[in-house]
Amino acid sequence: MKKIKKELKMINKVLTFLKKLVNDNSFGRYEVGLLVIAFLGRGLFLFNRWFGISEYEFLLINQKGIFAPLCHSRGDCFLPASLLLINLPRHLLRIGGTIDVFYWERIMMLTLGMISLFSLWKIASILFPKQQLLQRLFLAVLAINPQFVFVNRFITPIGIAFSLAGLGSWLLLEGGKNERKRGWIAAGLLVLLMAMFSSLQAFLVVWLILLLITAGLKSKKVDVKTLVGVLAGSMFLWLFYLYSHHLLTIRRIMPFLEDPGVINAINASRGTEINFGIPKLARILFNKGYYLIFWLARYWRQFSLSNIFSLVENSQSSLIIAAPPMLLFFAPFFVIGLFNSFRLMSRGKSWGLLAITLVLAIPTSFYQNFFHQDLFVFALLPISFYVALGLKLMEKKKAWKWFLASLLVVNVVISYYKINRDFFRSNRLINQELYQQLESND
Amino acid sequence: MIKLIKKHRLALRIGLVIIVSFLFRFWRLTEFPASLNIDEVIIGYDSYSLLKTGRDHWGKFLPLAFQSTGDYKPPILIYLMIPAIKIFGLNEFGIRFTIALIGSLTPLIVYGLVNKLFKNRSMATIAALLLAISPWHIQFSRSTFEAILALFLVILGMFLFLKSLEEKGRGLWLAGLCLSLSMYAYHAERVFVPVLLVAVAIIFWQEIWRHKKESLIALAVNFLVLIPFLFIILSPQGQTRARDSIFTNDYELTTVRLAEMEQWSGRSQWERILNGELVNTFSFWAKRYLEYSDPRYLFFKGMSYTHDKFPDVGIMYCFELVFFFGGIFYLMGNYLKINKKYKRLIFAWLLLGPIAASLANNSQHPLRSLTTIPIPQLISAVGIYGFFIAINKSKLKTVFKKGIFVLLGGMILVNVGYYLDIYYVHNPVHYSHHIMYGMKEIALYAWENRDKYDQIIIDRKFGIEDKNIVGIPFAYVLTYGKVDPLVIQRARQGNKTPLSFENFAFREIYWPKDRKLKKTLLVASFWQLSPDTIPEEQVVKIVSLYDGRPMFYLVETDVQ
After folding, report:
1. What is the torsion angle, in degrees rounded to the nearest 10, for the CA atoms of residue A258, residue A261, residue A267 and residue A268?
2. Ramachandran region of residue B174, left (φ > 0), alpha (ψ -120 to 50) or beta?
């Protein structure tokens, strides 16, 4: 007994130290436990070759240099700034070799992933300060949901952007809350870093709007000059970056604008209208304005519960191909949470803000092939929060607790089993033979 | 004038709903859809056969399940259509009239239902008008689909149920009767109604318990009405439809997933369970169910009037997207005076609506998911009503307020106009072959010229994109020739394969062999009777699709 008491005291001491470190009293043993679960999910078998290598890891390793440019099949090459960022310390420490690079990058990614998880929990605690259970449940969803776990496990621009975005948003919120310019500047820089990927160009615009709204809502006294200055500076540098790399064209950002299927559809519809004898209506009803409707349909289609909670078409190109973006178990809780959030909107701005964050799905909707499961991870954040709210509303139904917990366990076991089973079918991973070849070359 | 309007406000509201509803369902009813589809033509002829002989075209006396094309159709609609067939004859109008009438009356029942739920006539009017102009409901009201009748009975049943709660349980048996009859009207209701009733029993158990006597009477009436139904669904014939259309027969599940499952069958027991049938089937069903929440299906492309990527219409209008979520906001936010139990009923109905459709073998099926109506319209109506109230209460200048309403009205008009354009102009061009366009022309020609030939052979397979669409040309000949039902009944009893009556035969045509037949008219698709191999003088008629593409060739053999 004494030993246990001693150990408990030790745990308490560690917790007190952590609370001081994170400057938050709501950080307790549950949060630590959840972070440990998240760490295990992200860190277990991290270096096992069985899990494959993502295309980005491979490109860097294959070139044996740090600043190897990444080239698209269409011919243009660019330097993913995030990869430079995470490799810079390694370069300074002079850690070399193909496999060492691989280890280093994954450790960095894991660290960034854990930081982002913590940042997201902090954001939840700032936006919903009195709802500790809600924050915990949100953290729990982030900790165990496969899409979040696998985005944190591998080096991909999306994974790095996800981590930096989380951290940047937290710093910005803290800056807004405490009127600290440093927070805003740091946030702006992080956003800039995050933006330095060709595949995420459109994402930045959405993110900037959200940051402005968030800062405006949370700040006691908005320092508009600093905020706009930081964001405009970031934007300018980003535009310069895109311009210098010839990436600044609307059609490149929104490839569906060049979709021959849509162009043919507009022309054919016009023809039908003319044949019917109403040529004047043809131009009014069927013109380039249809792109807007077409895009709106694509944007909203992403929120089909079947896309979020069941297996997605074209998932071969995503990091996990045998599981949906979110566990099926969460589906009813998402609906309950979403519907109830409407009820809560009158009680605080934060619920309205949460609804606005669904615009995070805009960049995904621009992609030519429907739908980009990995990039959708940004929009999964508000969805996870609705799930957490739905779970919270079950709090009083204690009779259901064990039944629901067992369902969750079954769902987690099946999902992770299937992900592991089919891992090498993903187009984003290179095969095991190549990996072995690299290992033997090293 | 204003006084008069105020005095007769209710009559005006109902009048408006009726006019809009009838207009959208009856305007050019015989021309659009451009052709009677398979179900319409066979249902119409069975009804005609009942009228003339008291038997269906298979010769069965007053059946409760119509063998029809082998799918054992529900009975009520076929019996209900008899008066219209008698009055208007066996033609497009006669066949479509009954369902168009029932469809036109449904918004009125919705008015009553919403008024019972919210005690708000304005909201009831908006909901009824939304249903009156709903593409989802109009589409199936203009063709002879049993689902419209079943839906009418369900909504009427629920209206009578809510009414009976207000009247100490009086008339509960009538509500039960309507709901039971709906199960005779369409297959989807056979799954949906029992599930809805369980939800109703859970939500209103206190009220049901309070009116024990009335509830027991309703239960007894239901039981009596459903006795024949139980015999139908337990019989092998009754199970045919369920067996054919259940989702476990779906191509995706049976071929891809089960093949994948077999791949892992040699592994450990745990792996066999994790890759097993139960896990795969459940996750597949869940996907099918969740697909009904797809906003693209709901607001942009659900009706599939045109090919992929073409401008289209959802099962709800685009403008409803905002009001639908606004409606949920108002419903959840306690801004409206509504009984909590009614609120639960609305959400339960919304979630249970697609259950039956999700258990069938096609994804996103607007017809089978009609059971969700009128809840989406009701929620959108709440959103529109809430928006009006919010704007009226706001401190905006009157001019701006009026401007917003005009803008909203304009937006709705444009959206409705767009739908009408897609429905009347584009849909027939895209999918005329799917609704058997051209069959009428063939049937009329063949029937009028039947004396010229020893034999008329019509091929059942056709289609341009899909070359294996299987039609039922015999039903078109029967309908447009107004053939005496005794002729087909005798042919059916003779069990001839392939089907033939008088000098008509319905089988596959093989030109190299059939060209040698004497004095025969062959009717088949252009790819069956290729214009390259057939002498021009033997082609007596070319029947084109709606868009002008030649589809069928009518060729005579043994030309002198």
Report:
1. 180
2. alpha
Which of B513, B527, B520 has the alpha carbon at shortest distance from B461? B527
- Global pTM reads 0.89
* Amino acid residing at A214: T
CA A272 to chain centre: 43
**Is it true that the peptide bond before B223 is cis, omega within 30 degrees of 0?**
no
Measured CA angle at B128 (ends B311, B398), to 5 deg: 85
Angle, helices B187-203 vs B340-352, to 10°: value is 150
Closest CA to A273 of B35, B312, B133, B424: B424
Question: Which amino acid, one-letter code, is at A215?
Answer: A
Inter-residue contact A160 to A121 (CB < 8 Å): no
Q: What pLDDT sits at residue A182?
A: 66
Q: How far is B131 from chain A (nearest CA, A)?
A: 22
**Could you tell me what percent of chain A has a pLDDT over 90?**
17
Instruction: Give ∠ CA A165-A166-A168 in degrees, rounded to 5.
Output: 60
Nearest 10 degrees: Cα torsion A53, A56, A62, A68? -160
Shortest CA distance from A355: residue in chain B = B325
Within 10 A of B329 (CB to CB), how many other CB atoms are there?
Answer: 22
The Cα–Cα gap between B560 and B558 comes to 6
* Prediction ipTM score: 0.89
The residue of chain B nearest to residue A298, with distances taken between CA atoms, is B296
What b/e string do you get for A300-333 counting C-beta neighbours within 10 Å, with b at 16 or more? bbbbbbbbbbbbbeebeebbbbbbbbbbbbbbbb
Contacting residues for B381 by C-beta, under 8 A, at least 6 apart: B114, B123, B124, B126, B127, B130, B323, B327
CA-based nearest residue in chain B for residue A342? B329
Find the CB nearest A293 among B293, B300, B347: B300
Which residues in chain A touch residue B310, judged by CB atoms under 8 angstroms apart?
265, 268-269
pLDDT tens figures, B386-417:
999 999 988 888 899 999 999 999 999 999 99
8 A C-beta contact, residue A104 and residue A57: no
CA angle B473, B474, B479 (to 5 degrees): 100
The Cα A38–Cα A43 span in angstroms is: 8
Whole-angstrom distance, CA of residue B364 vs CA of residue B348: 20
State whether B425 and A273 contact (CB < 8 Å): yes
B418 vs A268, A276, A285: nearest CB: A285
Tell me which chain B residues have a C-beta less than 8 angstroms from the C-beta of A269.
306, 310-311, 426
Backbone angles phi, psi at B7, to 5 degrees: -65, -40
Name the residue among B82, B25, B47, B15 with its Cα closest to residue B475. Answer: B47
Among residues A66, A61, A41, which one has the least CA distance to residue A51? Answer: A41
Maximal C-alpha separation, chain A: 93
Other CB atoms within 10 A of residue B560 CB: 3
Say if the Cβ atoms of A290 and B311 lie within 8 Å.
yes
Confidence of residue B179 (pLDDT cuts 50, 70, 90): very high
Q: Which residues of A touch B426 (CB under 8 A)?
A: 269, 272
